Amino acid sequence: MTHINSDDCTGLMAFWADIEADYVLRYQQWHNCEHIPERVSISGFVEGRRYRSLDNKPHFLMYYDTQTASVLASDAYMAALNAPTPWTREALTYFRNPTRDIFTRLAVTGARGKFAAPYITSLRFDLPEEDEAKYAGLWLRAALEAESVERVRFYRVDSAVGNMATSERKVHGGGPGKQTYLVLIEQSRSPASGNGPVTRGDAAVSGDIRRTHEQCHQYWLEMVHQKDESR
């Protein structure tokens, strides 16, 4: 069995949304049984995951690792976005407060574990461009040293791809977020007791933190689907 390693993927589509409470079970069935397999089957898609808010509110992070960000503007993916299935059209009407962004990876420390990380922290923010290198180096390395952290990835939004109008977007109404940067922190144990990786990262850049429009959420894993290239 052969898998493309998601450590080698530089593209990411991330979608944050609340789901109407009465529809959550139906949403999970749709996402598990139709939507993630459909998306991961597209050329250039490697893995899809869904995480649920650690406080068990009906708030979710859904994302796909792709070989490059250009995959998320490919004809095959655009065709899927512009021809949603009936079930997809139904499910998307129950999304609330949706944000969907396309990202290119700038840096990564650590490596994907043997299994998909059971917990993840999503940190979205704006940052002066001259501080990019500081985060790609010192900040990520320090965050990786926190207890139970397996991998830390740093992304910049690709607004040209993310702003494309599609049939699916017309249904869910979600556009890009206002933040330029994303850090994903994968952990083998629950981060409920605190946010050690972020604290360590901030300390490493000597307190010279200029993040704005920051949003930090913590999640636990509900679903992962990885492509088997041997089939």
Task: Walk me through what this model shows.
This protein is an alpha+beta fold. The chain has a single domain, classed as 2-Layer Sandwich (Alpha-Beta Plaits). It is 27% helix and 35% strand. It has helices at residues 24-40, 75-81, 86-92, 132-144, 159-162, 167-172, 196-204, and strands at 11-19, 45-53, 59-66, 95-110, 119-126, 149-157, 181-187, 212-226. It has an eight-stranded antiparallel barrel. Helix 4 (132-144) packs across helix 7 (196-204). The protein is globular and about 50 Å long. The termini are close together. The mean pLDDT is 91.
List keywords for this structure.
single chain, 7 helices, alpha+beta, 8-stranded antiparallel beta barrel, Alpha-Beta Plaits
Please summarize what this structure is.
The protein has 231 residues and is α+β, with helices and mostly antiparallel strands.
SSE run: EHEEHHEEHEHHEHE
Report the biggest beta sheet as strand number plus sense, adding barrel if it closes: 8 strands, antiparallel, barrel
Query: What is the level 1 CATH name?
Result: Alpha Beta
Share of helical residues: 25-40%
Total helix count?
7
**How are the strands of the largest sheet arranged?**
1-3-2-8-5-7-6-4
Q: From the helix content, strand content and strand pairing, which structural class follows?
A: alpha+beta
Which spans of ≥5 residues are poorly predicted at pLDDT below 50?
none
Strand content: 35-45%
| Ends apart, CA distance between termini | 8 Å
Name given to the CATH architecture: 2-Layer Sandwich
Count of discrete domains: 1
Instruction: Sum up the overall morphology in one term.
Output: globular
* Number of E strands: 8
